[in-house]
Amino acid sequence: MEREREIGEGCSLSLREKRNLREKERRMRMKDLFCLLSSHVSPTRRQLPVPQLIDQSTSYMIQLREKVKYLEEKKKTLLGKELWCHPEGSSSSILPKLSIHSQGSIIEMNLIISVNMKRLTLHELMRVFEEEGAQVMSANLQNLNDRTAYTIIAQAIISRIGIDPSRIEKRVRDIIF
């Protein structure tokens, strides 16, 4: 067999060479997968060593899992009570539901209205926050069967002055009704 390879007749590789080639392909594939993982987990451009990358990936996944749990609980509190207490057709009778929470210079508004009620745009609600001295950090609109959920998170432009949640609530209620 050695003689055939030297002459050029036949192109068969030995078992050892095949195994080495498969191992090299496996290592290249793992390297590509680690690069892909690094691009999803690490915000920096530099490549992390594999142990650090795995640690960071694990903590990132735990953080995402906790965020999903928090958002699921929040969704249950916003929508779950209406779904369990009322039949499908009568759930719109308890809407709109407005809740405003403030913590320091950050304020969060959750509003759920029926699609049969007055049509609102997210822009109208954001304008209320901006006119009251807040900068909108996040605004979300979600259509859910027979209702629409609005979520706005804003921060006071001047933290010493802050934001008055009662004024925002009053103005939003004026828009709704």
H/I helix tally: 5
Spatial order of the strands forming the largest sheet: 1-2-4-3
Provide the low-confidence segments as ranges. Answer: 3-9, 83-92
Averaged pLDDT: 80
Overall radius of gyration: 29 Å
Helicity level: 40-55%
Q: Strand-residue fraction?
A: 15-25%
Terminus-to-terminus distance: 90 Å
Sum up the overall morphology in one term.
elongated
**H/E order of the elements?**
HHHEEHEEH
Return the structural class: alpha+beta
What secondary-structure arrangement, pairings included, does this model have?
Layout: H1 2-7, H2 15-41, H3 50-85, E1 97-103, E2 106-114, H4 122-131, E3 134-144, E4 147-156, H5 165-176
Antiparallel strand pairs: 1-2, 2-4, 3-4
Helix pairs in contact: 2-3, 4-5
Question: Keyphrases for this structure?
Answer:
alpha+beta, 4-stranded antiparallel β-sheet, 51% helix, disordered N terminus
Please outline what is shown here.
With 177 residues, the protein is an alpha+beta fold. The protein has helices spanning 2-7, 15-41, 50-85, 122-131, 165-176, and strands at 97-103, 106-114, 134-144, 147-156.
